[in-house]
Design brief:
By secondary structure, the chain is of the alpha/beta class. The chain has a single domain, classed as TIM Barrel, CATH 3.20.20.20. It has ten helices and ten strands. The strands form two sheets. An eight-stranded parallel barrel has the order 3-4-5-6-7-8-9-10, surrounded by seven helices. A two-stranded antiparallel sheet has the order 1-2. Helix 2 links the parallel strand 4 and strand 5. Helix 2 runs parallel beside helix 3, helix 3 runs parallel beside helix 4 and helix 9 packs parallel to helix 10.
Length: 284
């Protein structure tokens, strides 16, 4: 694939895209409460853009372990003013991170051009209708279980096979609802219903999934996740930058086209170095 189509533009993959995380929640695992006010959210959006973010991913509901699902009304109240303000001030694409079609619908009306669904349409299939009608980009992430149980699922025997089968099902639902293939991206869902070793396996063997689904860009979101903290001796999220960058580098080398991260500037720098090295590599 050469580009990812959203409702407003084609996003090129000359270099992997960096999706900056902007959680306007009181309880997200890494930055909960930091950007809950409109002013704080706008300042962070500007910083992420200056740091090199290609996309801003706005989330109003935490999906960390033990989090509680909030109402449509509460989620709309959190995200819509932020999306409207960002879309008015900046030309950077906005993604809405939600599993609710009502929130997605209001978000695209407010200026979002990508819908990022961590449930892969399992929680609310109508998100595919919203994406098709609005011509939005659509991220389908792999996860297992309900909202309440997706972090406590027993591990499957073969995680690569599980992700592959589920991706095919998600894609069929999206395409049946009229979402064009060029608008769809896939996310392996690190940390969602995977054992520690399975997160590492998905990163190490990402190239197999990339090849299997070569018509779609693969998104990887490893930033500050608990499996990285575990490798580093149970460090808190704020001290996982080095591990997050290592995971991002592995993902890019194995074919990831989009990285969803907290630390945008450092990730952009790492990508530049990776591709400078590739350009200087002797041709066989």
């Amino acid at each position: 694939m050469k580009y990812w189509q959203t409702s407003r533009r084609k996003l090129s993959f000359e270099l992997p895209l960096v999706m900056g995380i902007l959680n306007v929640t009181p309880d997200s695992f890494s930055d909960g409460g930091k950007f809950a006010s409109l002013d704080a959210a706008l300042k962070q959006a500007e910083k992420l853009i200056q740091d090199g973010a290609d996309i801003l991913d706005i989330g109003g509901e935490s999906t960390r372990p033990m989090s509680e699902q909030i109402s449509v009304e509460d989620e709309v109240e959190r995200v819509i003013p932020v999306i409207e303000a960002i879309a008015t001030r900046f030309d950077t694409p906005v993604s809405i991170d939600t599993t609710k079609s009502e929130v997605a619908e209001k978000a695209v009306e407010a200026g979002a051009e990508i819908i990022n669904d961590i449930s892969g349409l399992r929680f609310d299939e109508r998100i595919a209708e919203v994406a098709a009608k609005s011509h939005s980009g659509l991220v389908l992430m792999h996860s297992r279980g309900t909202f309440e149980t997706m972090h406590s699922q027993p591990p499957v025997d073969d995680i690569l096979a599980e992700v592959t089968v589920d991706f095919r099902r998600y894609l069929q639902i999206a395409i049946d609802h009229g979402v064009p293939e060029q608008n769809i991206a896939l996310d392996i869902g690190l940390g969602f219903g995977k054992a520690f070793e399975q997160n590492l396996e998905l990163l190490a063997k990402l190239d197999k999934i990339v090849y299997e689904f070569r018509s779609y860009p693969l998104l990887v979101g490893a930033s500050r996740k608990s499996f990285i903290g575990k490798i580093l001796g149970d460090t808190p999220p704020s001290e996982r930058l080095g591990g997050s960058l290592a995971a991002a580098i592995i993902a890019v080398q194995n074919g990831a086209k989009i990285l969803r991260v907290h630390d945008v500037r450092e990730t952009v720098d790492a990508i530049k170095v990776i591709f400078a090295g590739i350009e200087l590599r002797p041709q066989k």
